[in-house]
Write a structure and sequence with these properties.
Elements: H1 5-12, H2 16-23, H3 31-44, H4 51-57, E1 62-67, H5 73-88, E2 92-97, H6 101-110, E3 119-122, H7 128-135, E4 141-143, E5 152-156, H8 159-173, E6 178-182, H9 192-206, E7 216-218, H10 223-234, E8 242-245, H11 248-260, E9 270-272, E10 287-289, H12 292-307, E11 318-319, E12 323-325
Parallel strand pairs: 1-2, 1-3, 3-4, 4-5, 5-11, 6-7, 6-8, 8-9
Antiparallel strand pairs: 10-12
Helix pairs in contact: 1-2, 1-3, 3-5, 5-12, 8-9, 10-11
């Protein structure tokens, strides 16, 4: 059976007009109720009819989504959350996965989404030429990565501040030799590794800890990369007593490497991550939590607001809250291991 807007209204206990306002991003609905309605609509399989609206408005009722790595947890989570909002409002998603330099160059050279989409959600950070190409489409643009840029609605977090809270926690525990597993080599043009590294450097400087470049290792933002990077750090003559991993996936790889080397966490080495991955609680990982799905939902909602013509001012960055979560992978260093 086809699910109607009345079915969604009855399931959520509100009027059909409230459901309509919520799904179209209109005002007059609390964010809590809007999220509830979007979730209910997705669960029931409700899709707004758009045939008549397309003829009247000239819209395609399609949103272009550009991602660097669709298979990675962060991007997949943002995409899934945003797609639910778009779908409930009657929009399809046209996905472009640009995981290689060749695919990325081909996309921005040909711009196959021109005249095929009403808006674009970009989960990669375009360079100036790429940004100009997207702006030339003449449609609303949004992203959940990187800082403010002209023409884009940016929904993100304070990566630098989050890294500072993670490293400061290790310093406050008494650690002085603190390693960092980063992802500086990829994704292309991604500023997150740089911002999180700066947070690491700031805390070390504030604590009077001299930077040792040997304590930084590239984990490529993957579990396998984190394991490889941790192994490199353990091979040092003076390995770290604690490690800050710029993502939980790399932190999980680090935990695997430590277990393989018969080292205990946190008794021998403390580990703190970043993101609050869905498996972080399972492994007891101390981490910095960011609302990944909420960023996708908010970016999608703001795109719908702009499509509805209710936000004529220049897009303003939206910073989502983060929080430090203490679990079981951090503790003071053993006496004699502070170096």
């Amino acid at each position: 059976m086809t699910v109607s807007i009345t079915d969604v209204a009855e399931a959520t206990g509100v009027s059909a007009s409230t459901v309509s306002r919520a799904l179209r991003g209109r005002p007059g609905v609390s964010e809590e109720m809007r999220a509830r309605i979007v979730q209910t609509a997705a669960e029931l399989g409700y899709t707004a009819s758009r045939s008549a609206s397309s003829l009247a408005s000239g819209r395609t009722y399609t949103i272009g989504v550009v991602v660097p790595y669709v298979g990675r947890w962060f991007f997949g989570t943002v995409l899934d959350a945003a797609e639910k909002v778009f779908s409930a409002a009657g929009y399809d998603v046209l996905l472009y996965n640009l995981g290689s330099p060749e695919a990325r160059k081909r996309f921005f050279t040909k711009l196959p989404i021109r005249k095929r989409v009403d808006a674009v959600l970009s989960l990669l950070i375009p360079d100036p030429e790429e940004a100009a190409a997207l702006c030339s489409l003449g449609v609303p643009l949004a992203t959940t990565v990187g800082g403010a840029r002209p023409g884009f609605t940016v929904v993100g977090i304070d990566d630098r501040g989050g890294a500072e809270s993670a490293v400061r926690h290790l310093v406050n525990l008494g650690h002085r030799r603190i390693g960092m597993i980063s992802g500086a080599s990829e994704p292309l043009h991604w500023t997150t590794p740089l911002d999180r590294r700066q947070g690491y450097l700031d805390v070390l400087a504030d604590a009077g800890i001299e930077l040792d470049p040997a304590l930084e290792a590239d984990g490529g933002y993957t579990v396998e990369g984190g394991e490889r990077a941790m192994t490199e750090l353990l091979a040092l003559r003076h390995p770290p007593t604690a490690v800050f991993a710029q993502s939980d996936e790399m932190a999980m790889g680090a935990l695997r490497a430590l277990r393989r080397h018969r080292l205990r966490v946190p008794e021998d080495v403390s580990v703190v991550g970043f993101d609050d991955h869905e498996l972080s609680e399972v492994v007891g990982l101390t981490t910095v939590a960011q609302p990944v799905a909420a960023q996708g939902r908010e970016a999608a909602r703001l795109l719908l607001v702009r499509l509805d013509g209710r936000d004529a001012v220049s897009p303003r960055p939206v910073e989502m809250p983060i929080r430090f979560i203490l679990r079981e992978t951090t503790a003071p260093p053993h006496t004699g291991r502070q170096r």
